[in-house]
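User: Reviewer 2 asked us to show a designed sequence for the structure in our supplementary figure. I'm pasting the structure tokens here. Could you produce the per-position amino acids so we can include them in the response letter?
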């Protein structure tokens, strides 16, 4: 196995020729050439002018594709970009708003894999600490011969940071992505590493994202960082922002499971920016992982982060509380006065045994299946029983997808049904960002961002296009959007051994 290498290069702007040169030189330095089914995975969790710093920019992707072509020895049989963007939004919409479809003009044979529309492939796991025995991933991921991870350098509310490994949350469709997306999210991300390891990583750290992941604050880092080992890569990125990689659980777990080194002495670091100079550039970079009570301090939302059903975690990093933080930031993008419009409201997560200080008439929302409470609220005795279902009882083959229109109906019906009650429960594990956005929309009488006229025409077009493709493929007899076992004889050795 090649020694883990990380290359740090200066790149102040999204200049395609410069990115192309930097990435080509890195590929040559690492002795890498794309081959066979080559798949590039960006981070397009959210895209477009309202989310300008959330995603791997198209100029960056263009530079990477040029560089791969530059070092291609004629062994590439298929070149594709694949992603599942943030849930409930069709990936077609994310590709379109990110300007990715325009890449087809430069690379006519480029394929776009919308992972929410692909056949899902079952990958068996056998390591001792796995959360479950199988994981599902879209077929293009399982089949990839040369996998290139192209994440965005960002902070993250659930996992502190999102660099290379965390980008893997987008190699699952919605049904499977939401399973274990709770206090075990870091363990899930570590398990996803068994599906495939990238031969090459190139992160868009030109304009990095501070503080959060859907609406990050731009941070001019001016770097392109590349490497050949995901753990080593993430460890170096952590050091750049002054974060101990061992304290980021998914990085530590992947390291402990043998996916790569974490000590700087075991990693070759090269490039025209040394680690110390990169650290100077990153001074003051704000990470994620802020408790929900602190995040909403000074607003009309009083949050209570209780204990999830876990013997190892006393807070649900990875689940509902962080989703509320992302939800309010999405609403702030669409309405800068939304905080003033939301009336005093109490939002409760997990098992809370401290008083809930609601005044008569103030809404109290118990968010998520594990919310539990037994006490007085505004002079009334209230008991909320946990609906939490242990992960061992959740069967991924029975997971169902809920699109945004179904979620709108579900949340709207729940809020209408409970409109005269001060205490209400929102079910789910997790309750997604979209559902929490819709809950706040109802509580505050806010504009629904999913119906914003600036977006809705494109959104509905992409949604209908996705639905139409589904129908056509089904009529053609393709296994479309279905879950089924893969030909493991072909996929598993690739999936479990490449790059390790
Ligand atoms: S319901 Fe929400 S807070 Fe509770 S365990 Fe699930 S994701 Fe975490």
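Assistant: Here is a per-position design you can include in the supplement:
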């Amino acid at each position: 196995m090649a020694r883990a290498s990380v290359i740090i290069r200066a790149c102040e702007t999204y200049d395609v020729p410069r990115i192309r040169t930097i990435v080509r030189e890195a590929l040559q330095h690492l002795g890498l050439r794309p081959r066979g089914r080559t798949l590039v995975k960006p981070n397009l969790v959210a895209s477009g002018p309202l989310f300008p710093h959330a995603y791997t920019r198209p100029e960056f992707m263009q530079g990477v594709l040029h560089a791969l072509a530059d070092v291609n020895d004629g062994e590439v049989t298929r070149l594709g970009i694949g992603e599942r963007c943030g849930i409930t939004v069709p990936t077609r919409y994310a590709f379109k708003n990110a300007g990715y479809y325009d890449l087809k003009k430069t690379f006519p044979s480029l394929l776009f894999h919308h992972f929410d529309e692909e056949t899902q492939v079952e990958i068996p796991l056998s390591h001792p600490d796995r959360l479950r025995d199988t994981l599902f991933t879209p077929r293009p991921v399982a089949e990839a011969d040369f996998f290139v991870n192209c994440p965005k350098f960002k902070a993250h509310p659930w996992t502190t940071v999102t660099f290379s490994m965390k980008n893997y949350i987008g190699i699952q469709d919605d049904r499977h992505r939401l399973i274990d997306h709770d206090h075990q999210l870091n363990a899930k991300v570590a398990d996803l590493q068994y599906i495939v390891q990238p031969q090459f990583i190139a992160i868009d750290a030109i304009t990095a994202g501070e503080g959060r992941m859907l609406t990050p604050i731009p941070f001019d880092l001016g770097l392109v960082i590349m490497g050949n080992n995901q753990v080593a890569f993430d460890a170096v990125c952590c050091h750049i922002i002054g974060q101990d990689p061992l304290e980021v659980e998914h990085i530590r777990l992947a390291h402990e499971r043998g996916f790569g080194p974490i000590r700087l002495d075991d990693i070759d670091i090269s490039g025209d920016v040394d680690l110390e100079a990169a650290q100077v550039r990153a001074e003051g970079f704000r990470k994620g992982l802020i408790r929900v009570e602190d995040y909403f301090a000074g607003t009309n939302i009083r949050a209570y982060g209780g204990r999830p059903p876990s013997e190892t975690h006393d807070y649900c990093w990875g689940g509902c509380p962080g989703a509320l933080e992302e939800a309010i930031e999405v609403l702030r993008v669409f309405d800068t006065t939304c905080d003033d419009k939301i009336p005093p409201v109490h939002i409760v997560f997990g098992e809370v045994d401290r008083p809930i200080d609601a005044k008569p008439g103030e809404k109290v929302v118990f968010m998520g299946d594990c919310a539990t409470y037994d006490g007085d609220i505004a002079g009334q005795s209230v008991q909320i029983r946990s609906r939490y279902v242990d992960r061992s009882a959740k069967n991924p083959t029975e997971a169902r997808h809920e699109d945004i229109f179904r979620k709108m109906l579900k949340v709207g019906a729940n809020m209408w049904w409970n409109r005269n009650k001060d205490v209400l429960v929102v079910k789910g594990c997790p309750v997604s960002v979209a559902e929490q956005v819709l809950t706040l929309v109802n509580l505050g009488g806010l504009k629904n961002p999913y119906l914003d006229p600036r977006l809705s025409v494109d959104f509905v077009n992409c949604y209908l296009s996705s639905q139409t493709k589904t129908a056509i493929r089904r009529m053609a007899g393709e296994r479309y959007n279905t879950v089924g076992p893969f030909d493991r004889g072909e996929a598993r050795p690739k999936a479990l051994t490449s790059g390790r």
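For the response letter, you might also mention the following. The radius of gyration is 22 Å. Confidence is low (pLDDT under 50) at residues 487-500.
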